[in-house]
């Protein structure tokens, strides 16, 4: 078990300097230095061991929310709070939020070494507890595929729905398509289905979500085995969902489906960050133009900075591809380290009728479709299946334990 690094969350530059000097003196490894408490949950490394030092903010911040959001993304990290006041009510709220230890500034700074020793012990206990609570066999029994683009209008929703449909037709796996665009999800319009059953109906039962409850709100395509979970019907419901809700939802879905395809918003908010951090494969959708490529690079910088994904779990899909594009695929490969897994031909004239009728590119198994977007989608699906552990129509993907039906 590797030694945790100490991450410092402090919006006071002078105090940050004092804390880091003390940590250097104690010869302990330092992790992230975060000067905006509200963004701490985005910047903390999700995978590596951490101990958090959170100093009382100078600005008006709901510190309990900061602590809770951090604990959601890194459950094993003990939290030491550096307080500037000793109000009993405030301290009680801190402990309720999940703080392990509180040191009063400046007089108790000399006790930091002992507090870190206690935190290291607590970290080991947290890891052991997490391993005991982790359901055996859950990891690897299913795959979460997130289709995402940081630029609106790239066609991510259209690709996510068609990828899920083609996977359901050709993989032999149980496939679920989830719309996580919480405010203005568009899958119900794209698929031409009612919006009276949706994710909003599950909010109150997410902590103990059963298959029956999940099954009752799903829609199923008549032309494939695909199951669909729509986003909340009312935009204001988006405020009710946080990162913990997405984690609970995906944990439950993994138990009942082999492949889970997520359509997420372009904004990197609490919902999308939680989804990306739990994804097994991120398909980034872009077009071969300068704005799309620049946005992709900006998104990658954020994902890398906050350790949200591993490079090997990211692949590109070029939408509306044409050999007439000024930027070529070779040009794109020189600008990114991610592989291009597929291109979808530019065929908006033909696709517009499908969209208007609520139809998808494929409705039959083993049907590659005509040359153009349909055949390109079939080829992309084949690549995805090979990468996640199966072949088209062979059913090599491990089946979830719970049957859907």
From TrEMBL:
Coiled coil stretches, renumbered: 102-129
Pfam families: AAA_31
Gene Ontology cellular component list: cytoplasmic side of plasma membrane; cytosol
UniProt keyword annotations, A-Z: Coiled coil
GO terms under biological process: negative regulation of cell division
InterPro entries registered for this protein in UniProt: AAA_dom, CheY-like_superfamily, P-loop_NTPase, ParA/MinD_ATPase
Positions of the AAA domain: 143-307
GO molecular function, one term: ATP hydrolysis activity
Domain of life: Bacteria
PANTHER family attached to this UniProt entry: SEPTUM SITE-DETERMINING PROTEIN MIND HOMOLOG, CHLOROPLASTIC-RELATED, SLR0110 PROTEIN
Protein's name in the database: AAA family ATPase
Organism: Paenibacillus aurantius
Organism lineage string: Bacteria, Bacillati, Bacillota, Bacilli, Bacillales
């Amino acid at each position: 078990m590797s030694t945790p690094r100490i991450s410092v969350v402090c919006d006071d530059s002078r105090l940050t300097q004092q804390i880091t000097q003390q940590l250097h003196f104690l010869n302990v490894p330092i992790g992230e230095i975060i000067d905006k408490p509200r963004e701490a949950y985005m910047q903390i490394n999700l995978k590596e061991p951490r101990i958090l030092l959170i100093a009382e903010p100078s600005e008006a911040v709901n510190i309990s929310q900061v602590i809770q959001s951090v604990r959601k993304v890194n459950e094993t990290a003990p939290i030491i709070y550096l307080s500037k006041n000793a109000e009993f009510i405030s301290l009680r709220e801190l402990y309720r939020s999940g703080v392990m230890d509180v040191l009063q500034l400046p007089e108790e700074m000399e006790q930091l070494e002992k507090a870190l020793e206690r935190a290291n012990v607590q970290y080991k206990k947290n890891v052991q507890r997490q391993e005991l609570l982790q359901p055996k066999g859950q990891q690897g029994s299913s795959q979460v595929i997130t289709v995402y683009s940081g630029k609106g209008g790239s066609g991510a929703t259209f690709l996510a729905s068609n990828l899920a449909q083609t996977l359901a037709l050709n993989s032999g796996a149980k496939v679920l398509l989830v719309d996580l665009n919480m405010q203005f999800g568009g899958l119900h319009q794209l698929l031409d289905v009612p919006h009276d059953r949706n994710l909003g109906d599950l909010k109150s039962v997410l902590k103990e979500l059963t298959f029956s409850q999940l099954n009752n709100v799903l829609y199923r395509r008549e032309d494939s085995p695909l199951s669909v979970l729509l986003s909340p019907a009312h935009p204001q419901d988006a405020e009710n969902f946080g990162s913990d809700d997405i984690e609970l939802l995906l944990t439950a879905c993994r138990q009942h489906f082999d492949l889970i395809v997520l359509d997420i918003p372009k904004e990197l908010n609490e919902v999308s960050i939680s989804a990306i951090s739990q994804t097994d494969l991120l398909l980034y959708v872009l077009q071969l133009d300068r704005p799309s490529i620049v946005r992709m690079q900006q998104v990658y910088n954020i994902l890398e900075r906050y350790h949200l994904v591993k490079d090997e779990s990211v692949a590109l899909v070029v939408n509306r591809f044409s050999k007439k594009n000024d930027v070529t695929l070779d040009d794109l490969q020189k600008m990114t380290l991610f592989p291009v897994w597929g291109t979808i031909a530019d065929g908006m004239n033909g696709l517009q009728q499908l969209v208007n009728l609520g139809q998808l590119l494929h409705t039959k198994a083993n049907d590659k479709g005509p040359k153009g977007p349909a055949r390109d989608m079939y080829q992309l699906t084949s690549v995805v299946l090979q990468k996640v552990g199966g072949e088209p129509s062979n059913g090599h993907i491990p089946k979830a334990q719970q049957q859907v039906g």
